Amino acid sequence: MSVSFDIQPNPGARSDAEVAEILASPGFGVYFTDHMVSITWTKGQGWHSATVKPYGPLTLDPSAAVLHYGQEIFEGMKAYRHADGSVHLFRPNMNAARFNRSAARMMLPNLPEELFVEAVRQLVQIDARYVPEAAGEHSLYIRPFMIASEAFLGVRAAEEVTFLVIASPVGPYFTEGVKGVDIWITDEWARAGEGGTGNAKCGGNYAASLIAQYEGYEHGCTQVMFIEATGKDRVEELGGMNVFLVSADNELVTPALSGTILDGITRDSILKVGEQQGLTPVERRLSAQEVLDGIADGTFTEAFCCGTAAVISPIAGFKSKKGEWRPQGQAFERTIQIRDGVLDIQYGRAEDSFGWLDKV
Ligand code: PLP
Ligand code: COI
Q1: Ligand 1 mean position to 341 CA, how many Å?
Q2: Do 226 and 190 form a contact (C-beta atoms < 8 A)?
Q3: What are the pLDDT digits (tens) for 33-57?
Q4: What is the distance in A from the centroid of ligand 2 to the CA of 142?
């Protein structure tokens, strides 16, 4: 890769004692490491000014396009510490490839995959002391993102763009842990529509999901499951996670990639690990009614949601304005088996038979 990084260590970096205090109770996305990566793209010039520098506020012109038109994308990935102290990324090329698919949808420039991965590696290396021990499912959450930083109010693709990577030591996303979360099925709000940005990881999708998320909170639920916008029938995904069902005859069923949902890397990994564990992976259209009827009559015995931040969380029940449905398998046996299967690879406790780990 021809881009070289200018490394500017942070003179105000936290002491080891301060880092240890954060790692003892990191929460999720609350604390950030001492550094960040920044790379600029200028039309006609390409990517330049790759820098690893002290973490801190950005200077943006108030007219920067991202602040007005939301031309922005991001990724979510993690670095895991193994028992021998080594640190590993999980399928980082999948994040790099998805980042470019999101970029293409949002008219942002392509970032060479190797530059994306190198930027992540640079940050993890300089801030390696923030990668927690594996205990309690702690990890370093990494957030690469790209913003239209050009100062210009016309509506067009920005001609100056900034790519940044920040990182945050994290514990579990859900405080419920493996007890299982309740999911609200909204019949009012949609997250994405055909031809929209549902399969791009852009900030606007998350802003649009908040109103439904808060509707879910009002009904005692942790997350919301979205149904397709037009037919009001096809199950899509949660605000920040994909969804799975386990059937009594050992099918591992998840909505097919319809163009309106995110193609989760955890989703893809679960389909492969589940198959290795003897389940039959099935990606197909699932109607909301079929899911609820299937839970009621025992066709679907377990349900879970999955994503990098939330890992794999059992779903204790679904709620909607029409009622409440609780899968019979409240011990979540299959879910926990799959969850352990994925986590054991990520934390180096099982053989990485798929070649998914990338040592930093
Ligand atoms: N769906 C949405 C909307 C998400 O935000 C995420 C999280 O990244 C996922 C699914 C799961 O994707 P992944 O497993 O790649 O983290
Ligand atoms: C992730 O799982 O990485 C996500 O991006 C979901 C959410 C935290 C936005």
Answers
A1: 19
A2: yes
A3: 999 999 999 999 999 999 999 999 9
A4: 10
